[in-house]
Amino acid sequence: MTGNRYTGRARRPAPEPKFGRMLLISMALHLLVLGLFTGLPSSIDPVRRPVYYVDLTRLPVADPQAGRPDARPKEVVKKPTPAAKPATVKKPTADVRPKPTAKPVTTTPPKPTAVKPGISEADISKKLAKMREEQERKDEIQALKDKLAALAATDTRGEDAAPVAPLGMPDARGDEAGVSTEVWLQAYLKEMWRLSRYQVSNLDLWCKVQIDFSADGRLLNFKFLRESGDVLFDDSVRTAVLKVDKLERAPGKFWQVEVVFNLKDLIKK
Amino acid sequence: MDLIAGAGLVVKLVLLVLVYFSVVSWTIIFFKLRVVHKATRDSERFLDFFWSKKRFDIIHQGVGEFASSPLTVLFREGYQELARTQKRQDGDDVIPAAELGRVENVARALRRATTQETQRLEKFLTFLATTGSTAPFIGLFGTVWGIMDAFRNIGQTGSASLAVVAPGISEALVATAIGLVAAIPAVVAYNHFVNKVNVLTGEMDNFSQEFLNIVEHMGRRG
To answer: How far is B38 from chain A (nearest CA, A)?
Structure first.
């Protein structure tokens, strides 16, 4: 009951909803809109893959070794390869070891004439020591390689890891210095992709494209598995995909790959 | 969000003012939606109730159910005024001119109640009108300031490429965008509520006339 200042009598006003409650609703609505435009979409972004910036001068290989695709060019792992090449020598070491011991015992009578001058016990022990040394070295190199592979597989994504890691793929087990065709393709597409952040209204745009390549690496077809919803964004992706006329390395069979185009990754480039 | 973060201090202040306008506008919109909706609904129900009863005292006992309707306030004011004048006439000798005076008193009470209820229904609507008319200009001010800032930066860097010009202008235009975002709902809501209030005011006028007619008939019958 409030007073009527003209009559001096009490007047019962019509009940009104609480203004404070409406203010809370309004603020919640504004926060929701703000969240929709900024934070929420990125937090529910389903595709979060490690991003590697591959130097396109490094060609894709069929069987990449363990390492990082964004490693520095100096690290083109030539040193490990010579160490790995003795793998051809490896066989003799593994097989020869029993042989020298076997030779003196089993074939002593017929061979002494031919081998006698070179093969003394000292020589044999020297050779054995050398072989053992070599084997130890190989073991060490192998252990280091395993360690590097493990490091690469941990997906550090930091800039510091790249210079020390060999050129390769984190989960690869091959022996060729280079990147996989998929990573190369992603880097190439990114290089070909032209879109300014100011052309689009939203930074949380992404789309997924399925691309088909023939056995000799020619682009056959592509289709959007998920469109971004922004015409400019989708057009720029279409243009980028069409620029991949032919792959750098023929896959050898029909190859279908799915590539995610994320605007935030492009901006980081 | 990046655009807002990259804007200058003046533009940020402008954005803050616009957000304040928007928040308060929407608060008023929600508030008025409820008030007007309840007033319209209760008025319809009250009129049905009013015409279904024959006696004012019975109606007076039941008006509590339609508390949100401005018509109940009118009825209550008119009825109380009528009761007071009747009490006075019962005490004194019946004066021939008193009948006219009684109707006049009730009419004045009804007019006063109508004015008060209209004021209550129109409360806060001026803020919506202010938001609708000023928010775009405030936003425009932010944009102009932002563009001035951007051009000064362009002058300092000495480059006029799109990469240099576009970000500054884009950041500046956010202010106009938010100004419009605040103003458009405010203007739409203002027009809607003014229309609703006009309808309710018309109903109050009609009800006043009907009430006075009844009072006059009652007087003639004695």
So the answer is: 9
Nearest CB neighbour to A16, from listed B26, B35, B117: B35
Residue B58 parent element (H or E) = helix B56-62
pLDDT confidence bin for A88, thresholds 50/70/90: very low
A-B CB pairs within 8 A amount to 66
- Please check the confidence at residue A45 and state whether its pLDDT lies above 60: no
Cα(B122)–Cα(B15) distance, integer angstroms: 28
pLDDT, one tens digit per residue, over B118-172 is 999 998 999 999 999 999 999 999 999 888 888 887 777 676 666 667 777 877 8
pLDDT in tens, B27-49: 999 999 999 999 999 999 999 99
CA distance, residue B99 to nearest chain A CA (Å): 21
Give the domain extent around B212: 2-221
How many domains does chain B contain in total? Answer: 1
Contact residues for B127 (Cβ-Cβ < 8 A; gap 6+): B24, B25, B28
Q: What is the distance in angstroms between the Cα of B34 and the nearest Cα belonging to chain A?
A: 7
3-state SS class at A223: strand
Could you say which of B31, B67, B68 has the minimum Cβ distance to residue A22?
Answer: B31
Instruction: Count the Cβ atoms, other than its own, within 10 Å of residue A112.
Output: 12
Chain B CB contacts of A6 below 8 Å: 112
